[in-house]
From TrEMBL:
Cofactors that this protein relies on: a divalent metal cation
Family: Belongs to the HARBI1 family.
Residue ranges of every copy of the DDE Tnp4 domain listed in the record: 135-287
Function per UniProt: Transposase-derived protein that may have nuclease activity. Does not have transposase activity.
Protein name (record): Putative nuclease HARBI1
Entry GO CC: cytoplasm; nucleus
Compartment list: Cytoplasm; Nucleus
Family annotation (InterPro entries): HARBI1-like, HARBI1_animal, HARBI1_dom
Keyword annotations of the record: Cytoplasm, Hydrolase, Metal-binding, Nuclease, Nucleus
UniProt organism field: Pleurodeles waltl (Iberian ribbed newt)
GO molecular function, one term: hydrolase activity
Length: 330
């Protein structure tokens, strides 16, 4: 009987030999920050290397970072990392679970001692005093569950998760909620989040969040004046817009840094629960990049390729469905 050696995983990625710029473009973090992240997640990822075919924690983290950053299909990432598609699917679940255990240390609402600095940074944007956060919603596309498809269809007629975020003046995400389907209104998400409780605490008296006209005008939430009639109201709306636009810039930076959240990469082909985990993970990594002052670098080429792959795949699936409906065969 011929003895067969078990297959041994051989990594195709060597972080030590890669140029620093290439690391930042591919993984959205620098070398030192990636090692810091791996050290934090290693206890939860070490179980994967007990088997001779196990994947080192560093390779697990790098493959997931590349997937989140590129917005490519899993097969594209598996070719680059040298692992099979089922193997990467398990790695993705493992890394997301490990990362989300540390959410409270990555996404932190301003504490009382931080308020003077936070208010000063916002005042520099639009000269409105006592602002400690800009709030808004953004949508991340997904393939909806069959049983509740309509619940995930948003007002722009595609299926999504409606993600509420609060950011600071430096685009740091201080609060987020990614558990509601796309059809849910912004005001409902706000009422059913922890923000009303947090902003209602005595130590946050006389400070405000700033949001658009989709929100109600609350004692702690400033919205623009509808149909301004005086110069003072127009001036307030102009200052309000200059201040609030930081949340829009935050959404743009987040989705540019992690293309898996952007529409140009197509929708996420995962369960709604895993899509929510991916969104939270991207927000955490966005804050990590800001904290470690990692500049955002991007090459234009891969985005076009990913969109072309998505378009070709969509056309192929449509043709296949049409052929099945007309002939009854695949």
């Amino acid at each position: 009987m011929r003895w067969r050696h078990p297959p041994v995983y051989r990594a195709l990625v060597d972080l030590l030999t890669m140029e620093e710029r290439h690391i930042k473009v591919t993984y959205r973090l620098d070398r030192a920050t990636i090692h810091e992240l791996c050290a934090q997640l290693e206890p939860d990822l070490m179980s994967a290397i007990c088997h001779p075919t196990g994947i080192p924690p560093l390779v697990q983290v790098l493959s997931v970072l590349q997937f989140l950053a590129s917005g490519s299909f899993q097969t594209t990432v598996t070719i680059a990392s040298g692992m099979s598609q089922p193997m990467f699917s398990n790695v993705l679940s493992r890394v997301l679970s490990a990362l989300l255990k540390h959410m409270r240390s990555y996404i932190v609402f301003p504490q009382v001692e931080d308020l003077p600095t936070v208010k000063g940074d916002f005042y520099a944007l639009g000269h409105i005093p006592n602002i400690i956060g800009a709030i808004d919603e953004t949508h991340v596309a997904l393939v909806p569950p069959r049983r509740s498809e309509q619940v995930y269809r948003n007002r722009k007629s595609y299926h999504s998760i409606n993600v509420k975020m609060v950011c600071l003046a430096d685009q740091y995400i201080s609060h987020m909620n990614a558990k509601f389907p796309g059809s849910v209104r912004d005001a409902y998400i706000l009422r059913n989040s922890s923000i009303p409780y947090v902003m209602g605490q005595p130590q946050r008296h006389r400070v405000w969040l700033i949001g658009d006209s989709g929100y109600p005008n609350l004692s702690w939430l400033l919205t623009p004046v509808r149909n301004p009639r005086t110069r003072a109201e127009e001036h307030y709306n102009e200052a309000h817009g200059r201040t609030r636009r930081v949340i829009e810039r935050t959404f743009s930076l987040l989705k540019a840094r992690f293309r898996s959240l952007h529409m140009t990469a197509g929708c996420l082909y995962y369960s709604a629960k895993k899509v929510c985990q991916i969104i939270v993970a991207c927000c955490m990594l966005h804050n990590l990049a800001l904290r470690c002052q990692v500049p955002f670098l991007q090459e234009d080429g891969p985005v076009v390729v990913v969109w072309q792959l998505w378009s070709l795949w969509t056309v192929k699936k449509r043709r296949q469905k049409k052929r099945i409906s007309t002939t009854g065969t695949t």
